[in-house]
Write a structure and sequence with these properties.
CATH superfamily of the largest domain: FAD/NAD(P)-binding domain
Distance between the termini: 12 Å
Low-confidence stretches: none
CATH topology of the largest domain: FAD/NAD(P)-binding domain
Mean pLDDT: 95
Number of domains: 2
Strand order of the largest sheet: 5-2-1-9-20
Largest sheet: 5 strands, parallel
CATH class of the largest domain: Alpha Beta
CATH architecture of the largest domain: 3-Layer(bba) Sandwich
Helix content: 25-40%
Radius of gyration: 22 Å
Strand content: 25-35%
């Protein structure tokens, strides 16, 4: 069908929208600023709770979306609102006129260096959840020493549920990601002690509670409810973590070979920059504002612009894929209504 449908973002949301639109007979246009598709999920190793390889999910989507018009290494330079359409100027000089835009611009991770008390970028043995996934995939990170991995700690809610970080919202997937990564480390270093320092554990998803129980029962991962109050480094370069166990009311001090900070999910600057171009509102949590947060979360306040995935807030992979499928159907019905 001859209708320009522009999908901004080539992560799993954008790819799934493209797949569904291809099945409906359209040939969508996918604009991706990076040199590859798959977004954040392509950087991950295994996906909770079934521990399936992320590369399998992403690879399948890329293969199925291959018939779409895909632009890599391409950014949106400008969007001009016309009478009943949008003119999009790309960084490669190409101009596209369209009546339909699907925003699948995803999210960003909080910069853990902003929480100076945790020592990211200061102490050698402190990394983020993203850094650890990179090591899982490549084995390339000098902070993970195969011969000296006796104790590892995870700090939940770094940059989320935090008024000082200007993000009071829950990042939704940090708890389960920490558990997944803790299990992966225990599988590689069975003798290591692994600690998770958390505020509250939010195991809301299908099989998540089972996953959490298995982490304790089968892997001996220790969960400590309490905020980390201090991180320092000893003379050997190991990390010293002080916290209070709020369940027992006792202080906790552990010495670790590695500390992993679970950086929270925030809206990325691309989303807000594009929103400003077409006067889309930003919600109080900093993400793109839908018509409502119940029945019309994939619809923007502007006709012809739709949302899918984490541009409207933290999402799991299944939620993202479900929203992408719904958005593709909304696009199809919108086009039918135009004729």
């Amino acid at each position: 069908m001859k209708e320009n449908i522009v999908i901004i973002g080539g992560g799993i949301a954008g790819l799934e929208v493209a797949v569904q639109l291809l099945d409906l007979g359209y040939k969508p246009i996918v604009i991706e600023k990076r040199d590859r598709l798959g977004g954040h999920v392509a950087d991950w190793n295994l996906l909770f709770p079934d521990m399936i390889p992320a590369r399998d999910v992403v690879g399948n989507l890329i293969a199925r979306a291959s018939e779409a018009n895909i632009f890599l290494n391409t950014e949106i330079s400008f969007v001009n609102k016309l009478k009943d359409s949008y003119n999009i100027m790309l960084s490669n000089g190409i101009s596209i006129n369209t009546r339909i835009i699907v925003m699948t611009t995803g999210f960003a991770l909080f910069d853990a260096a902003k929480k100076e008390e945790y020592g990211y970028g200061v102490y050698d043995q402190v990394m983020t959840n993203k850094d650890l996934e990179h090591w899982f995939n490549t084995g390339d990170d000098k902070r993970v020493n195969d011969s000296a991995m006796n104790a590892v700690g995870f700090v939940h809610c770094v940059g989320s549920r935090d008024e000082k970080a200007r993000n009071p919202q829950c990042s939704k997937v940090c708890c389960i990601t920490a558990i997944k990564q803790a299990i992966e480390l225990k599988q590689r270093f069975p003798e290591a002690m692994v600690y998770c320092f958390y505020m509250d554990l939010r195991m809301f998803g299908k099989k998540y509670e089972d996953f959490y129980i298995n982490a304790q029962r089968d892997y001996g991962i220790r969960f400590i409810r309490g905020r980390v109050s201090e991180v320092s480094e000893n003379i050997d370069g190991r990390v010293i973590v002080k916290a209070e166990d709020t369940l027992s009311g006792k202080p906790v001090k552990v010495t670790l070979d590695l500390l992993v900070l679970m950086a929270g999910i925030i809206c990325n600057t691309d989303s807000t920059r594009l929103a400003n171009m077409v006067s889309l509102p930003i919600d109080s949590d900093g993400f793109l504002k839908s018509r409502d947060n119940v029945a019309e979360i994939i619809e923007s306040p502007r006709d012809g612009i739709f949302y899918a995935g984490a541009c409207t807030g933290p999402k799991t992979v299944p939620e993202t894929l479900a929203e992408a499928r719904a958005a593709a159907l909304k696009v199809h019905l919108f086009i039918k209504g135009l004729k």
